[in-house]
UniProtKB/TrEMBL annotation:
Keywords: Coiled coil. One of its GO terms (biological process) is regulation of endocytosis. One of its GO terms (cellular component) is endosome. This is F-BAR domain-containing protein. It is found in: Endomembrane system. Residues 1-208 form the F-BAR domain. GO terms for molecular function: phospholipid binding. InterPro entries: AH/BAR_dom_sf, F_BAR_dom. Residues 113-140 form a coiled coil. Its main location: membrane. It comes from the Eukaryota.
Length: 230
C-alpha cells in the first residue's frame, strides 16, 4: 500500500483514534453532567429517613391513612352492626319456626306455646332495634362519603403533582442524554468523517500508478555502467 491509498488508510487510523477520544469525552459528559444532575435532583427531591424510606413517600402514605381513618372507623362500626343484624334475623327466624311448630304440636302445653310466642316477639323487637342501629350506621357512612372522597382526592392530587414533577424532570434529563449521545449533530465527529471522506476521495489511481512507475518501474532513475578511470 502506497501513495494516496496509503494516506487514505492512515486517515482511517487517525479517524478511529479521534472518534475514540470523542466517545470518551461523551462518556465523561454523561457521567459528570447528566448523572450528577439526576443525583442532585434525587437528593433535593427525596429525603431519606433514618429508619429507611423517603420522607415524601411517607407523607403521602400518612395523608391517605389520615383521610381513611374516620371512614374506616365508621365502616368497622357498620360491619359490626350488619353482623349483629344478620344474627338477629337468624335468631328471629328460628324463634318463628319454634313458635309455629309449637302451635301444631298437640302435646305442647298452652303455657309453653305462650312462652315460645313471647320469645318470638322478643326476637322480633331485638331484630328491629339492631336493624335501626344498622340503618343508622349506614346513613352515617353514606353521609360521610363525600368528605372522605374529597380528602382522599386532595392527597391523591398532591401525589400526582409530585409524580408530574418527576416525569417532567426525567423527560428533560433523557432529552439531555439524547443530545449528548446524538453524534449526528456533533461538529467534531462531522469534521472527522469529513476529513476521512476527503482522504478517500483523494485516492488517485493515476497518481499512485505514476508514483510506482517512477519509483519502481520504467520511470525510476537509471544509473547505467560507465567507463571508469582510475
Amino acid at each position: 500500500m502506497y501513495g494516496s491509498l496509503l494516506r487514505a488508510w492512515q486517515s482511517f487510523m487517525t479517524a478511529t483514534e479521534k472518534l475514540s477520544e470523542l466517545h470518551v469525552q461523551i462518556q465523561k459528559t454523561l457521567m459528570t453532567d447528566d448523572t450528577e444532575k439526576i443525583r442532585n435532583w434525587q437528593k433535593d427531591t427525596y429525603h431519606r429517613k433514618i429508619f429507611g424510606g423517603f420522607k415524601e413517600s411517607c407523607e403521602i402514605e400518612n395523608g391517605f391513612h389520615k383521610a381513611q381513618k374516620p371512614w374506616a372507623k365508621k365502616f368497622k362500626k357498620l360491619e359490626k352492626a350488619k353482623s349483629s343484624y344478620h344474627k338477629a334475623c337468624k335468631k328471629e327466624h328460628l324463634a318463628s319456626v319454634r313458635e309455629n311448630n309449637g302451635k301444631i304440636n298437640p302435646e305442647l302445653s298452652l303455657e309453653k306455646q305462650k312462652k315460645l310466642t313471647e320469645d318470638h316477639e322478643k326476637c322480633k323487637q331485638d331484630k328491629e332495634k339492631v336493624k335501626q342501629r344498622y340503618e343508622k350506621s349506614l346513613q352515617e357512612i353514606n353521609k360521610y362519603n363525600p368528605k372522605y372522597m374529597e380528602e382522599m382526592e386532595t392527597v391523591f392530587d398532591q401525589s400526582q403533582q409530585q409524580e408530574q414533577k418527576k416525569i417532567l424532570f426525567f423527560k428533560q434529563a433523557l432529552l439531555s442524554i439524547h443530545k449528548h449521545l446524538d453524534i449526528t449533530n456533533n461538529e467534531s465527529i462531522m469534521t472527522v468523517y469529513g476529513d476521512l471522506n476527503q482522504a478517500i476521495m483523494a485516492v488517485s489511481d493515476q497518481d499512485d500508478l505514476k508514483w510506482w512507475r517512477n519509483k519502481h518501474g520504467p520511470g525510476m532513475l537509471t544509473n547505467w555502467p560507465q567507463l571508469e578511470y582510475e
